[in-house]
Amino acid sequence: MAPDPQDLKAKALVIHEKLCAVYGCPIPYFHSLDPLSELISSLLSHRTRNAESGRAFKALRARYPDWRALMNADPHEVEQTIQGVTWPEQKAPRIQAVLRAVEERHGALSLDFLSEMPIAEARAWLQSIPGIGPKTSAAVLSFSTLRKAALPVDSHHHRVAQRTALIPASMDVGPSHQALAALLPPNWDAQQVYDNHEVMMLHGQRCCFFKSPACGRCAILDLCPTGQGRVGAGRIPGNAEATP
After folding, report:
1. Organism's domain of life (predicted)?
2. Torsions phi, psi for 83 (to 5 deg)
3. Does this model's pTM top 0.85?
4. With a cut of 50, which residues of the chain have pLDDT below it?
5. What pLDDT sits at residue 2?
6. How high is the pLDDT of residue 237?
7. How far apart are CA 198 and CA 73, in angstroms?
8. To the nearest 10°, the Cα dihedral for 213, 215, 221, 224?
9. Paired strand residues for 85
């Protein structure tokens, strides 16, 4: 039997409140980039550690006076500039193609106009560009100076949502964006939606590990059927890997 939607919404809210108590909400925004810059940063970060993608972004900033210069640069030069991220040979031409698509479709190399669009419309506009998926579109709207109430879902967030049964175990990251956003109160502002992503992500990074999750010290164990199953089977991992 499918879970009752109202029960899931109530559970998502309790999980949010418990994790906010652990990780401290409101959580400061980690970026104050304009939306076009945030788009480039997000494209660099795919399957890449934050430290490496951050270094690559700074390297692009240092090498090119503006994003038009990056768009028109030799792709091999861009690839060399972003060495350290995963698949730089793919990301370099993809970033340049995305920049060209923005200019062709909007008539200017800017995404500031998205501030005037409803969230669903803005995300659809971004995702109509090849190479931009739901996570990137949400990141651009949420993390940039646009500060819109769009919910990104990364691999850590997704893992916690699956293990707590907020979404089915079979649901991929892409469709989980819509499913998880639908569980949040519709009147939440951008900060609250951002906090939800951050606490779910942080919990995945610091407690709900991909391997050997630290269920014995999990603040939401009472809401996690996966963790309860592990504890019941006597498979409670040690707490040495990380602390909240």
Report:
1. Bacteria
2. -55, 135
3. yes
4. 238-244
5. 75
6. 53
7. 35
8. 40
9. 83
Contact 56, 82 (CB under 8 A): yes
Nearest to 190 by CA among 150, 151, 152, 149: 149
Domains of the chain: which residue ranges? 5-26+153-232, 35-143
Buried/exposed code over 28-59 (b: 16+ C-beta within 10 A; e: otherwise): ebebebebbbbbbbbbbbbebeeebbbbbbeb
Q: Are 129 and 102 in contact (CB under 8 A)?
A: yes
Q: CATH fold of 35-143, please?
A: Endonuclease III; domain 1 (1.10.340)
pLDDT at 50: 87
- The sign of the dihedral angle between the CA atoms of 99, 28, 155, 80 is positive
Q: Contact at 8 Å (CB) between 206 and 242?
A: yes
CA distances from 136 to 121, 174, 210 (A): 15, 10, 22
Q: What is the DSSP letter of 33?
A: -
5-26+153-232 — its CATH code? 1.10.1670.10
- Please answer whether residues 40 and 97 qualify as being in contact, where contact means their C-beta atoms are separated by less than 8 angstroms: no
pLDDT digit string, tens, across residues 122-143: 999 999 999 999 999 999 999 9
Distance CA 243, CA 241 (A): 7
Give the separation between CA 244 and CA 234, rounded to whole angstroms.
22
